[in-house]
């Protein structure tokens, strides 16, 4: 028995961790399903939805635009160097476009929005939880999932593809600017090559990814904020967890989606 | 008591993880009566209140509102009969004062037009002693006492049958606490509402209560009319209402 004791303790620790993980995942899935169901059931709160659309979509434009611009530029420089190693500098326009549209537009845009929006949602809902505003909503016959969570989920899921699309365009323009001014490309050739090689599937897959990332961003912000611990520390922790979990889930989802959309 | 009680709790139990908070609460509040629940911090006062409100689901026991059992199904309908004043006010800080007061009238079923809701809100604000000018301010611009008044106005906005008060005087100076106590007493009498208050402020108890229940270690330790409170020989009640450090209630909780 004495020899077995440490093993038992070890196994119990693993068991506890697994149970916590399963319980947490289950609770999150239920939270998500319930909230999504409220998107489709009245009463709706259009004013709240509009406010979130502005906040998540419109005010994220500068962040996403600047990220795309610099990424597109850097991408052009890198591919020029890389392509130069086997005399393929002419691939710059098409690879910049495909790279931006399929991968970097949605992923980097998503990560930036995760930092901005997940954090602010978690902080806001966390503060509302701590100051009993969420309980107050319930006592005023308003379901917090319907009033707070559903509009945020919907707004982020719809806004993110639009943001990603704008990011795509700006990113390609960034590549174009660098290509034309620094790498000696002919402007019309650059644009023609971009158009020729870019397909609807490239763009579409990126937008699907962006919608999923938008959902993840709002879900993690809401989930962490809704279940925030007490006090300033609780809200701080919720905010951090929201950004970290949203970012990691975005990267994981990106791989899974890429695998699903473009099987090797 | 021949009448059906407005609120009836029997054998209500609740645990959070390994921590048992309520160990079988039995409590009745008659229609139009003002019951105050006293007890130290962490004895389960808030949890009792939140169980009646349906924010927390008890593990065992029954809760009846107006003779009908409170379930998850009829919770929505029940909530429309409730008003609640939260400890910190719990005002929505993204909305102006009048939008807070009119929240229930502007959301959900049977919503009123903006102008009408605003009018009612201003009327309720006046009832709790606030001028119409405060209507367009944000909660953050108000003092603690004024926030409490707004919370009160919001709680009574739709003339609820049952009103809950969570530590209504906490964080207020003694004069403002007195004002809020009087206001609560007046409103409850005037509206004929049933009131359930939790507090550990004895001045508040004497001002608001018809009946007092003391909760200790998750059970109702004592209950009776407010006049009986001073005459009881229950050592727990005696220690609590006189604020003695020595007694059966452990000072470290």
TrEMBL record, chain A:
<keyword id="KW-0997">Cell inner membrane</keyword>
<dbReference type="GO" id="GO:0005548">
    <property type="term" value="F:phospholipid transporter activity"/>
</dbReference>
<dbReference type="Pfam" id="PF02405">
    <property type="entry name" value="MlaE"/>
</dbReference>
<keyword id="KW-1133">Transmembrane helix</keyword>
<dbReference type="GO" id="GO:0043190">
    <property type="term" value="C:ATP-binding cassette (ABC) transporter complex"/>
</dbReference>
<keyword id="KW-0812">Transmembrane</keyword>
<keyword id="KW-1003">Cell membrane</keyword>
<dbReference type="InterPro" id="IPR030802">
    <property type="entry name" value="Permease_MalE"/>
</dbReference>
<protein>
    <submittedName>
        <fullName>Phospholipid/cholesterol/gamma-HCH transport system permease protein</fullName>
    </submittedName>
</protein>
<keyword id="KW-0472">Membrane</keyword>
<feature type="transmembrane region" description="Helical">
    <location>
        <begin position="238"/>
        <end position="257"/>
    </location>
</feature>
<keyword id="KW-0813">Transport</keyword>
<dbReference type="InterPro" id="IPR003453">
    <property type="entry name" value="ABC_MlaE_roteobac"/>
</dbReference>
<feature type="transmembrane region" description="Helical">
    <location>
        <begin position="56"/>
        <end position="77"/>
    </location>
</feature>
<comment type="function">
    <text>Could be part of an ABC transporter complex.</text>
</comment>
<comment type="similarity">
    <text>Belongs to the MlaE permease family.</text>
</comment>
<feature type="transmembrane region" description="Helical">
    <location>
        <begin position="207"/>
        <end position="226"/>
    </location>
</feature>
<feature type="transmembrane region" description="Helical">
    <location>
        <begin position="153"/>
        <end position="178"/>
    </location>
</feature>
From TrEMBL, chain B:
<dbReference type="InterPro" id="IPR027417">
    <property type="entry name" value="P-loop_NTPase"/>
</dbReference>
<feature type="domain" description="ABC transporter">
    <location>
        <begin position="7"/>
        <end position="242"/>
    </location>
</feature>
<keyword id="KW-0067">ATP-binding</keyword>
<protein>
    <submittedName>
        <fullName>Phospholipid/cholesterol/gamma-HCH transport system ATP-binding protein</fullName>
    </submittedName>
</protein>
<keyword id="KW-0813">Transport</keyword>
<dbReference type="InterPro" id="IPR003439">
    <property type="entry name" value="ABC_transporter-like_ATP-bd"/>
</dbReference>
<dbReference type="InterPro" id="IPR017871">
    <property type="entry name" value="ABC_transporter-like_CS"/>
</dbReference>
<dbReference type="Pfam" id="PF00005">
    <property type="entry name" value="ABC_tran"/>
</dbReference>
<keyword id="KW-0547">Nucleotide-binding</keyword>
<dbReference type="GO" id="GO:0005524">
    <property type="term" value="F:ATP binding"/>
</dbReference>
<dbReference type="GO" id="GO:0016887">
    <property type="term" value="F:ATP hydrolysis activity"/>
</dbReference>
<dbReference type="InterPro" id="IPR003593">
    <property type="entry name" value="AAA+_ATPase"/>
</dbReference>
């Amino acid at each position: 028995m004495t020899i077995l004791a440490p093993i038992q303790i070890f196994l119990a620790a693993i068991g506890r961790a697994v149970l916590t993980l399963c319980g947490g995942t289950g609770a999150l899935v239920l939270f998500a399903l319930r909230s999504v169901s409220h998107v489709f059931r009245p009463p709706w709160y259009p004013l709240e939805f509009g406010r979130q659309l502005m906040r998540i979509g419109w005010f994220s434009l500068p962040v996403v635009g600047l990220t795309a611009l610099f990424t597109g530029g850097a991408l052009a420089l890198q591919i020029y160097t890389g392509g130069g190693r086997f005399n393929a500098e002419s691939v710059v326009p098409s690879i910049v476009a495909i790279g931006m549209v399929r991968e970097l537009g949605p992923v980097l845009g998503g990560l930036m929005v995760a930092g901005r929006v997940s954090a602010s949602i978690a902080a806001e809902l966390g503060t509302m939880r701590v100051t009993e505003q969420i309980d107050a909503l319930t006592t005023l016959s308003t379901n917090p999932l319907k009033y707070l969570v559903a509009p945020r989920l919907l707004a982020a899921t719809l806004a993110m593809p639009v943001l990603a699309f704008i990011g795509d365009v700006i990113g390609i323009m960034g590549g174009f600017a660098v290509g034309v001014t620094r790498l000696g490309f002919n402007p019309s050739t650059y644009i023609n090559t971009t158009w020729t090689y870019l397909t609807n599937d490239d763009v579409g897959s990126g937008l699907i990814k962006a919608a999923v990332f938008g959902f993840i961003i709002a879900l993690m912000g809401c989930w962490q904020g809704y279940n925030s611990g007490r006090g300033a520390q609780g809200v701080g922790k919720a905010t951090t967890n929201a950004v970290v979990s949203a970012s990691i889930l975005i990267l994981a989802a990106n791989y899974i989606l890429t695998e699903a959309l473009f099987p090797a | 008591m021949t009448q059906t009680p407005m609120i009836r709790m029997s054998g209500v139990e609740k645990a959070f993880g390994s921590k048992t908070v309520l160990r079988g609460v039995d409590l009745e509040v008659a229609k139009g009566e003002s019951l105050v629940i006293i007890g130290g911090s962490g004895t389960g006062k808030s949890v009792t209140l939140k169980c009646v409100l349906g924010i927390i689901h008890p593990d065992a026991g029954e809760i009846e509102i107006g003779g009908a059992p409170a379930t998850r199904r009829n919770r929505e309908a029940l909530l429309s009969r409730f008003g609640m004043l939260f400890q910190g006010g719990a005002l929505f800080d993204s909305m102006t004062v009048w939008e807070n007061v009119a929240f229930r009238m502007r959301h959900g079923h049977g919503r009123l037009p903006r102008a009408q809701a605003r009018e009612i809100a201003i009327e309720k604000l006046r009832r709790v002693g606030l001028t119409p000018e405060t209507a367009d301010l944000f909660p953050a611009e108000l003092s603690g006492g004024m926030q409490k008044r707004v919370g009160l106005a919001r709680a009574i906005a739709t003339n609820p049958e049952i009103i809950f008060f969570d530590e209504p005087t906490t964080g207020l100076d003694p004069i403002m606490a007195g004002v809020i106590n009087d206001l609560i007493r007046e409103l409850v009498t005037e509206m004929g509402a049933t009131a359930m208050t939790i507090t550990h402020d004895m001045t508040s108890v004497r001002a608001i209560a018809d009946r007092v229940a003391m909760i200790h270690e998750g059970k109702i330790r004592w209950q009776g009319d407010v006049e009986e409170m001073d005459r009881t020989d229950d050592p727990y009640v005696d220690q609590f209402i006189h604020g003695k450090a020595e007694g059966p209630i452990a000072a470290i909780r």
